[in-house]
Specification:
- With 121 residues, the chain is mainly β.
- Helices cover 10% and strands 40% of the residues.
- It contains two helices and six strands.
- The longest helix has 8 residues, at 10-17.
- It is globular and about 40 Å long.
- The N and C termini lie far apart (38 Å).
Length: 121
C-alpha cells in the first residue's frame, strides 16, 4: 500500500473523524457493520481510524471502498492486522455491500490550521 497524505480544512477533518467506524465493523457479517460510506473526490470511502490531541482531530484514515460486484481481489484476513485485515473486508452502507480496497489516504489539517508544536521544556 502506498501512503498518501492529504491536507484538508480542520472542519472537514473533524467531520470525517466523526464517521470513524473501525470499532463497528463486522466484516464476517457485513449486514451487522455500522460503517458509513462517504463520497469524496469522485471516489467512495470509509473512515477506519482517527487520532485526536487536546480535543482536536489531527489525523483521519480513509480507505477506498467499491461495490461488492466491482471487487475482484481476495477477501480480508479477519485474524490479521493492518492492511490485510481491511483489504477485501465487506460492510453494508446505503443499502449495498461495499468492499474495502488496499487504497488508503491519511487526512491531516492543512499547514495553516495545524496546531503549534508544544515545547516540553
Amino acid at each position: 500500500m502506498q501512503e498518501n497524505i492529504v491536507a484538508v480544512a480542520a472542519d472537514f477533518l473533524e467531520r470525517m473523524a466523526k464517521k470513524n467506524c473501525c470499532s463497528t465493523l463486522n466484516m464476517e457479517k457485513p449486514a451487522q457493520s455500522k460503517g458509513q460510506v462517504i463520497a469524496w473526490r469522485g471516489r467512495m470511502w470509509v473512515c477506519t481510524g482517527s487520532v485526536s490531541s487536546h480535543h482536536k482531530t489531527i489525523e483521519a484514515d480513509l480507505r477506498e471502498v467499491v461495490l461488492e460486484e466491482n471487487y475482484h481481489g481476495s477477501p480480508n484476513h479477519p485474524m490479521a492486522r493492518g492492511v490485510p485485515y481491511y483489504t477485501g473486508g465487506r460492510l453494508r452502507s446505503l443499502g449495498k455491500t461495499w468492499v474495502m480496497t488496499g487504497f488508503e489516504i491519511q487526512l491531516v489539517p492543512s499547514s495553516e490550521e495545524q496546531p503549534a508544536q508544544l515545547s516540553l521544556l
